[in-house]
Amino acid sequence: MRLVLACPPELKMLEQFGRMKVRSVLVSYWYLQHVSQERGEALLRSLKDQGCWILIDSGAFSIFGSASWWEMRLTGKPKVRTDKYALEAMEERKAEGLHCDAERAFGEIDDYVKKYIKWAQHMKAQGLYDVVAEVDVDPIVGMKQVDSWRDEWEAAGLLEELLVTLHPRGHWNLAGGGGGGSEAPFSMKNAMQVSDVDHMYSGRFNFVGCSSGSDESTYRMIYSKWGTPMRKNRVRMHGWAMTNYHQMETQPWYSVDSSSWAGFGRWGILYKWNEERQFIDQIIVPETIQKREQKNAWRIKQFREHHWDEVEELGLAEGIATLDNRAVELWNASQWAKWQLAYEGKTRDAYWLTDEERRGM
User: What sign has the CA pseudo-torsion 330, 331, 333, 337?
Assistant: First the structure.
C-alpha cells in the first residue's frame, strides 16, 4: 500500500521532499495551475528524478463544493453558507426570485475540467505523474455530466491512469438519471446507484477512489459486494484523506493520502517513526496554544536527547529548536516517509500484483 503525502499549497515544499526521502506525493492541480507550465514541470520532474510516485489531485471539489463559491456565482453576493449544498441553494434563490446564474457557474466548472485534461495530457507526455484524479463533483453536476467528462479523459488517452471517485455515503444526484437534484444515501436497493458502482469496477478504470466521508461499514459493504470484479479486473482502491489506522489495516487499499503530516506543524506537533510499533508517535503536543511557550522548553529538551542526531543530519536543527513551522513540516515528512516505506512492503493483500510482479519484489 502507498501512503501518499498530500503537499501543502506552498509548492516550494516539494523541492525538499527528496532530502526527506519522501516516496509518494499528492500534488494538487489547483495549485499547479497558478504557476507557469515550466515551473510546474520542473517541480514534478524534481520529484520523479528522486524516484517519487506522484498522484495529481484535481483540487476542484474543495473549490466548487464550497458554499461560498456557489453563493457568489448564484446570487452575486459573497455570503458564506454552510448548511446547504449548491443545488439546494440554487433552487432556494430561484424560489425567492433572486439572481441565479447557474449556467455561468456550471460553465466555469466545465472550462476547468477541459483545461485540466489538456494540462494532464501534456504532463503525461513528459512522464511527470503516475495517476491523475478526475474532477469528482457529481454531487454538484450529476453523474451524467461526470460520465461525459470521463469520455473526454478517454478521448485524450488518459483513461489508463485516471482515478475516478466513488461517494458511497450518499453523493449521488438522482434527478433524471444524474442531471442534478438532492443527494440520497447509498442503498443496495437503488438500481441507479448500484449500476454506477458496477460500472466503476467493470474494468474500464484502473483506479477508484473512496471519499473521506465514508465509514468502515461502507468500505466493508463495497468489498463484500464488489470484491470479486475488483480483484478480477485488478481495480486499485484509493482512500481519500485517510490515516485511520484500523481502516488502513483491515482493507486492501492500493493507496491512501493524508495531509496530517503538515497540518499539525503549525501547532508545534512533531512526529517520530516508532520502529517497534511500526507506527507514528506524536512527540510534542502543546496542551493549548496559550501554554505553548511554557511547555516547549522541556519537550524540546527530551527531543534533543533522543532524536537530535537525525535532526542535524537533515539540516533542521535551527528550525526545530524554535519550532519553526517549515522545519517541523519537513521533519514530519521525513518520519512519515519511514511509514511510507513500511507500508509499501506489505503486499499480502495486494491483489493487483501479478505473480511475475510479486517475484520481482
Answer: positive
Q: Is the pLDDT of residue 263 over 70?
A: yes
Q: What angle do CA 71, 75, 79 make, to 5 degrees?
A: 40
Predicted pLDDT at 350: 84
User: What ranges make up the beta strands (E) of 201-327?
Assistant: 207-210, 236-239, 255-258, 271-274, 279-282
- Name every residue whose Cβ is closer than 8 Å to that of residue 327 and which is 6 or more positions away in sequence: 316, 318, 319, 320
pTM of the model as a whole: 0.84
Amino acid at 334: S
Q: Got the DSSP string for 302-360?
A: HHHHHHHHHHHHTT-HHHHHTT-HHHHHHHHHHHHHHHHHHHHT--TT-TTS-HHHHHT
pLDDT at 114 over 80: yes
| Amino acid, single-letter form, for residue 50 | Q
Per-residue confidence band for 196, with pLDDT thresholds at 50, 70 and 90: confident
Q: Where are the beta strands (DSSP E) in the chain?
A: 2-6, 24-28, 53-57, 131-133, 162-166, 172-173, 183-184, 207-210, 236-239, 255-258, 271-274, 279-282
